[in-house]
Amino acid sequence: MTHPHYMKINALYAEYLRQTEKADSLFEQKLNPDWPALAREVSGNRLQGRTLELLADQNRGGADDSVDKRLQTMKGKQVVCIVTGQQLGLFLSPLYIVYKTLSAIKLAESLNRRYGDICFLPVFWLEGEDHDYEEVSSLSILDKSGELSRFSLKEESARQGLSMNKRVFPGEIKELIYALKESLTPTEFSKPLFEFLTAVYRPGTSWLAAFRQHLAALFRGRGLLFFNAGDARIKEQSRDFFREVINRNGELLEAFLSGSEELKKSGCKAQVNVQPERAYLFFNAENGRRLALNRRGETFLNREEGVSYSRGELLRLLEEEPGRFSSTVLTRPLWQSYLLPTLSYVAGPGEIAYWAQLRPAFNLLGLTMPHVQPRHSVTLLEPRVAKLLQRFHIEPATMHADMRAFIHRHLKEKELPELSAYFEEMHRIKHEKEKELLEIIGKIDPTLKGPAQKSFYRAMESLDQLHNRLVRRVREKNTLLTDQLTHVHRAIIPAGPQERVLSAVYFQNKYGTHWLERLFTQLPDRFDRHRYVEI
């Protein structure tokens, strides 16, 4: 079993992990490819060489010496990239952002050790052009009382539809940081963490810059590189890619439909529903809003603004203002391989499912489809949680997703029925024997029957009191057990798998960087199964 029962994964991802024939037909590279051969296939492109120069320029001269050392290793070697990326979740939320990054670094380090003549660069593609504010503007933590608490930064109406790289933090970010600090348990790491957050997430600071600085600080010393595709120089270099997307839009749509059809024939559901009217391009309007383009024949439509462009007009705009064009979920992987010598892309289960739709599109554009590496999947076990799991002999992978069902399974309320049955039996015997004994007493001395009845009553009253005391004690024990089981469940499945819900700052506040160092030492170079890591 690669994942716990409570963590639902899509069927195609499961097929890919097992490397079935079905999965093999949908991806160009096997899970364990010939790395040097694949490196030769994806590298050597002159344009990619220029992009690597820009990548180096975007990362040069920072405070992390390991980044400069990483850039030095590029000299005189064949260079390929292990790429991952994610939307710019507030305060590195959710946790799997960290796990994707760690997975890319560990794979790159492993390959660098094995193949000294090739330079494998771990690269985080900053999804700054994404404009889904709701997806990135909140974070969740476990507060002082162990309750799940959610914090959100309200969107300013004037900025709706803007890409995240065009957004800055409003003044309310200070209030959010203060509220977050008040909710978390104070530790020796709290003061430096919140000094850092206050300095990085300042009103007026770019959302992209703050995300990058936070992730870079967390992985300091690991040689992680960042790629900002929204850089004007990158957009200048991307004209040919977007020109091909525009000129071959109909063919590209057919390729997406073909990939989806292959997926359906294999018995799997398409992760991304391909819509025939879509052009699979975004275009920034005059006011900066990022809008999806549709296509009808030779005409490209911006339905939200009621504007249409001929193919020629759109190509002219591309020539004049390439920065206004950006990719969609299906064209971004293609753009990524166009720009960078992408050997492998580190992906989550959902991403792997939609990458399975892309092989025909890669072939259409003459691009080598990279290897797709499943990211690490982790649940962090805090010391108290680990002790409770051991005490109650709970295997976390078998936990029920529903808290009530989980608690009900582990509560030992059978003690109450056993107690009740015992005392009911005593009452039954008392009624049977009392009558017999009173007859005997009456024969000996009738005046003693009344005192005898009172004695029987007091005896049973004492037994009932004992029964009630025992019932209360069992319930008290079960209340404590319920509280402990609730704590365990919230820590491991807080409204969903931990890695998909909690923010990295929760663990930074409690453990500094120890938890991340623990992950680097405990996890293998590549994903094999979901791991429970004690910190």
TrEMBL record:
It is an enzyme of class 6 (ligase). Keywords: Ligase. Residues 7-375 form the Bacillithiol biosynthesis BshC N-terminal Rossmann-like domain. Its EC number is 6.-.-.-. Residues 378-525 form the Bacillithiol biosynthesis BshC C-terminal coiled-coil domain. One of its GO terms (molecular function) is ligase activity. It comes from the Bacteria. Coiled coil: none annotated. InterPro entries: Bacillithiol_biosynth_BshC, CC_BshC, Rossmann-like_BshC. Belongs to the BshC family. This is Putative cysteine ligase BshC. The lineage of its organism: Bacteria, Pseudomonadati, Calditrichota, Calditrichia, Calditrichales.
